Amino acid sequence: MLPLAPWLCWGIPVIGALLTPLLAKIHPKVRDYGAVLFSIVGFIFALSMVPDIFAGKVVNWFTGEVLSTSIPYESKIEWIPGLGIEVGVLVDPLSVFMANIASGLGALIMVYALGYMHGDPDLTRYWFFKNFFIGGMVLLVMANNFLQMFIGWEIVGMCSYALIGFWHKKKDPSPVPDYKTEGEYNAMCGMKAFITTRVGDVALLIAILTIYVFTWKAGHPTFNFLELRSEEYIEWARLLVASGLLIPTIILLFGGPIGKSAQFPLHVWLPEAMAGPTTVSALIHAATMVKAGVYLVARVLPIFVEVFKLINFTGALYTFSLIVACIGAFTAFLAATMGMVAREVKKVLAYSTISQIGYMMLALGVGGLIGYVAGEIAEGYYAGTFHLMSHAVFKALLFLSAGAILHATETKDMFEMGGLKQYMPITYKCMLIGALSLAGIPPFSGFWSKETIFDAAWILANEAYAHGYAFIGTTGYILLFMAVITAAITLFYSIRMIAIIFLWPESEYIKEREHKGEHIHEAPPVMWVPLAVLAAISVIGGLFAPMFQVFMFKGWKGVEVHVSMEIFAELLFSPTILMTLGAIALGGIPAYYFYWSHKIDPGEFLEKHGFFRAVHKFFYNRWYINDFYTKVIVGGFIKLSLGIYRFFEQGIVDRFNYALAWVVRSFSQAFRKTHTGDLNYNMIAVMLGVIAILLLLLFG
């Protein structure tokens, strides 16, 4: 790798962010191209670490010096030695993989933004937060300890808040009735994302500090990932078990991923996050930030497996993995149903993101359950991380394609589009590839990654029954069933999205724009070239599955893999392939008749069938979960606050203050009568006082 690559891959974008205001003083183009250059250089440093993982050792590319003969490799600086607090980086397959996803897609999206954001008056602020976000995200995944990881975690949260509400100055009419301007609505969306994710972040912080306190009690205070899983430091886990806090702690730890990765019940912020620029949606809410929660689960899962085995308490692994898998499966299904009925193209993609993140959580949870049953988590771990890579590419492709469409049509509503295939042929082909990959259609990358998840769930069910765990076996089949149904729904809304935007007749809105001379046109090369690159990767990405498997398990004890094309044969001849074909038929056939061929008008169908109209309304209103939060949680909190103000503050505290003031005032008014200002009365009072003192002295 390049010298200091684990440090500079996140340090360079952070430096670029800090220099953005200075570059803006020089010239706007220096600022724009400089911001993009910093992100590209950061990616080059991240990419330089990939050969080291394959080689199984870390080598300085310039000098040839071997920094480490094995993976993982750690570089750290003691910050507060007595407290076990350090600043460090960890080079292992997971960190390098995630660093390349974040910085690579980040750099590509930054190039795209040169065209998409051209002419925006607040570009200095935009470039600052984009580079700062990339740096924070790479810091998060490269950190070798919980504390430093949490710092990166909060940086991306702050940048997300700032970028979602980036257009808070807009004076256009609000798209929702509760706000006057679009800027007010955007500001609310940013705040909603910030507050919702903070709920999970607080839970995560409590878990991190709890683990640290017990490492302190064990005599080895540390936040370090590698030290937490070593036998030398294992006493912290035994103390946690003895206190009864181990399972609550690991559940709280999962609270962070639930919030950051928009999983049920904290999924409600992601659809509103679409208020930001599409480049923000592509980078933060499709390719990188929402993957932070998946990364954290993937980071702690191997630690939990080793630690819980050493302390002979694998029940904690079972509990953690079951919760992760069940929440992931339910979230995947929940969000997919919302995507079926959404009108805005970015909302469809937002629901899709929530759903696909649920798939990744499902896979990692399945991996943990297989580890509980059979002692090895590799199947589910590989499935979750492989789908993460695949999804990062095709979802960035879909969001950037949507950005090109919004840039050309100036509307988010799919039903105000139609007929765009003839105007934007390159965008159509790229978005079609992304949609087919999202839907899991062979041979696109999404098919192979989704198939590995189905296969992992199938393996869990069979392994559990073989080892006598009937409940886990049944759970495995239920998880597989939910994953297959979700895949069918995903194909349905993918076809629906492509058909409405590109194949349906032109809407009245498009016709009116054409009549006014506002012609729809293809995106400029600076925008469609990144689309073409991502589309190509989505087409051939599945072919890298064997190499990716070797990469991800480099340095793992007890897991030996080699590059082999047999992985494709195993998936194609797996029993789950029939379920995949069934899902394609279940989702594809109705989508074809309703939207692609338009043989059945969906509006008329809903008018004739009251049950489906009610289901459509239920899904469109997001299962009323968002309304429940708004009216019961938020509204209830406001009412509770007003009630406390009226009955406690006004009724008790204020009345007590008024009563106390009245007593003091009354006493003052009564006492002031003794002070008439007449010298005779004053002298009489003095004499009476002297007599009283003499009597006390005489008889006292």
Map the helices and strands.
Blueprint: H1 5-26, H2 28-47, H3 50-55, E1 58-59, E2 66-68, E3 73-80, E4 85-91, H4 93-116, H5 123-142, H6 146-164, H7 182-217, H8 225-228, H9 235-243, H10 246-260, H11 269-272, H12 278-287, H13 291-310, H14 315-339, H15 345-374, H16 378-409, H17 425-439, H18 445-466, H19 470-503, H20 508-515, H21 525-540, H22 545-552, H23 566-572, H24 576-596, H25 602-608, H26 610-620, H27 625-671, H28 679-699
Antiparallel strand pairs: 1-2, 3-4
Helix pairs in contact: 1-2, 1-5, 2-4, 2-5, 4-5, 4-12, 4-16, 4-21, 5-6, 6-7, 7-9, 7-10, 10-13, 10-14, 12-16, 13-14, 13-15, 13-16, 14-15, 14-19, 15-16, 15-18, 15-19, 16-17, 16-18, 16-21, 17-19, 17-21, 18-19, 19-24, 25-26
List keywords for this structure.
28 helices; two-stranded antiparallel sheet; two-stranded antiparallel ribbon; mainly alpha; 2 domains; single chain; 700 residues
Derived structural class: mainly alpha
- Biggest sheet details: 2 strands, antiparallel
Unreliable stretches, pLDDT < 50, 5 or more residues?
A: none
Question: What percentage of residues falls in helices of 4 or more residues?
Answer: over 70%
Q: How many domain units? A: 2
Q: How would the global form be characterised?
A: globular
Total number of helices: 28
Separation, N- and C-terminal Cα atoms: 95 Å
Q: What is the β-strand count?
A: 4
Order of strands side by side in the largest beta sheet? 1-2
Strand content: under 5%
Mean pLDDT: 92
In angstroms, what is the radius of gyration? 31 Å
